[in-house]
């Protein structure tokens, strides 16, 4: 049996929550390996809606172990709040079913404020972040001045670590003409939340190695999408972490040998939140209609998503950079009723035809999509649970996507409900 890594194959918001939850039924362990509480997963189970930001999707299922890996930047107050909210919905969260890496970097108020200052500043620094401190926390991690979860277990050592961190942040505050942060206030911010989060702390690398050796099935759950990867995405309009499948190993401590089947999640069209290039974006009534039918608003922020046609060139690229073995195609039902559907199959750049998305920011802004038109379908795909339930043209659309991206569609999702899913290949069976 293979362990499974689930990654977004576009710019995030592809419907990973439902797919991860659906797969977690077969998993013993579900691991979050990067990102922070800027990424939202919505799960609909038996008519109950669960909105998760930090907690792995497996947490709503009894008998599953959920793990937050070292690759995640952790806002301890956000974690405590999310645990409290889900507990209020009847979900039991204890050390038995949740562990958090002891070496996970913490997000503090200094990070949130710096994030907001940059986003509200000059146009040159506006990336379209959620202002939740994710990027600045990753900066402190790389700058070797971060405070980590394990530091909360030894409060006597915190003042020295806080002073080291504030040497950097207060210099920035002075540059903005703002009051400096108080070391005492930061200490209180951390000391007050320590009892709420420390019960979940563990050496996650060792825990996962033990689980793997015991033959347990591990499901790795990514946040955002591969096109927001800090190296392989639409830089600088990206997130602050690696979102490709290789990060599952680094962000959990399990090692590349423990990572098996890579399942990429892609919508049957394309969406994007925030700033940055989007070659197949639609600015007309068709784009509006897709957004309305697909309820395209951010789970965490409520921000309206930009909508466009499926871009096969981009997804083919993420198939390569994440080593995707199969695709879970979601929201096919949103395209029901369109007379004609377009697929982006390449680009024009300065008069030349290219079959990849260039890395240069300037070139990314200049590319123009080349489209292939496909006849739409009048029948409904909503709630379909077998190929026989699908209109012939819908099947033709799926098959054409497979050809263009160079990967098979392993799973087809036809509604937010977990059971409205057509399975061609079980990722856990390699």
From TrEMBL:
* One GO molecular-function entry: GTP binding
Q: What is the lineage of its organism?
A: Bacteria, Pseudomonadati, Pseudomonadota, Alphaproteobacteria, Hyphomicrobiales
Q: Which family does it belong to?
A: Belongs to the adenylosuccinate synthetase family.
Q: How is the cofactor bound?
A: Binds 1 Mg(2+) ion per subunit.
Q: Where does IMP bind?
A: 13-16, 38-41, 130, 144, 224, 239, 303
- Which reactions is this enzyme annotated as catalysing? IMP + L-aspartate + GTP = N(6)-(1,2-dicarboxyethyl)-AMP + GDP + phosphate + 2 H(+)
Name this polypeptide is given: Adenylosuccinate synthetase
Task: Supply the Gene3D superfamilies for this chain.
Answer: Adenylosuccinate Synthetase, subunit A, domain 1 (3.40.440.10), Adenylosuccinate Synthetase, subunit A, domain 2 (1.10.300.10), Adenylosuccinate Synthetase, subunit A, domain 3 (3.90.170.10)
* Binding locations of GTP: 12-18, 40-42, 305, 331-333, 413-415
Q: Which cofactor does it need?
A: Mg(2+)
Where, in this chain's numbering, is Mg(2+) bound?
Answer: 13, 40
User: What is the organism field in this record?
Assistant: Microvirga lotononidis
**Which enzyme type, at the first EC level?**
ligase
């Amino acid at each position: 049996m293979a362990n499974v890594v689930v990654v977004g194959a576009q710019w995030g918001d592809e419907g990973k929550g439902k797919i991860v939850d659906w797969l977690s039924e077969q998993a013993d362990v579900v691991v979050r390996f990067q990102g922070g509480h800027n990424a939202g997963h919505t799960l609909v189970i038996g008519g109950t809606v669960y909105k998760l930001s930090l907690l792995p999707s497996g947490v709503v299922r009894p008998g599953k172990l959920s793990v937050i890996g070292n690759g995640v930047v952790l806002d301890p107050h956000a974690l405590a709040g999310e645990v409290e909210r889900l507990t209020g919905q009847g979900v039991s969260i204890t050390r038995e079913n949740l562990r958090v890496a002891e070496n996970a970097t913490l997000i503090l108020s200094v990070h949130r404020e710096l994030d907001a200052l940059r986003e509200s500043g000059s146009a040159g620094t506006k990336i379209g972040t959620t202002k939740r401190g994710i990027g600045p926390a990753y900066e402190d991690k790389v700058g070797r001045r971060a405070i980590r979860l394990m530091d909360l277990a030894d409060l006597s050592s915190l003042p020295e670590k806080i002073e080291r961190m504030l040497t950097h942040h207060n210099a920035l505050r002075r540059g903005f003409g703002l009051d400096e942060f108080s070391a005492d206030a930061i200490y209180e911010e951390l000391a007050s939340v320590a009892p709420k989060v420390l019960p979940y702390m563990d050496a996650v690398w060792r825990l996962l190695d033990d689980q793997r050796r015991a033959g347990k099935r591990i499901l790795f759950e990514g946040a955002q999408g591969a096109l927001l990867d800090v190296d392989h995405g639409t830089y600088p309009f990206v997130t602050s972490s690696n979102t490709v499948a290789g990060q599952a190993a680094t962000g959990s401590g399990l090692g590349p040998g423990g990572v098996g089947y890579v399942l990429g999640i892609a919508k049957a069209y394309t969406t994007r939140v925030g700033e940055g290039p989007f070659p197949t974006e639609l600015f007309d009534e068709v784009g509006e209609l897709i957004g309305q039918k697909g309820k395209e608003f951010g789970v965490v922020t409520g921000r309206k998503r930009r909508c466009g046609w499926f871009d096969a060139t981009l997804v083919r690229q993420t198939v390569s950079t994440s080593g995707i073995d199969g695709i879970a195609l979601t929201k096919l039902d949103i395209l029901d009723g369109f007379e004609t559907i377009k697929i982006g199959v390449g680009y024009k750049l300065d008069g030349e035809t290219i079959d990849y998305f260039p890395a240069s920011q300037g070139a990314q802004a200049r590319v123009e999509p080349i489209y292939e038109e496909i006849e739409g379908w009048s029948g409904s795909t909503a709630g379909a649970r077998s190929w026989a339930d699908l209109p012939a043209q819908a099947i033709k659309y799926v098959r054409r996507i497979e050809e263009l991206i160079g990967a098979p569609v392993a799973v087809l999702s036809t509604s937010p409900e977990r059971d409205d899913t057509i399975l061609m290949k079980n990722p856990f069976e390699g």
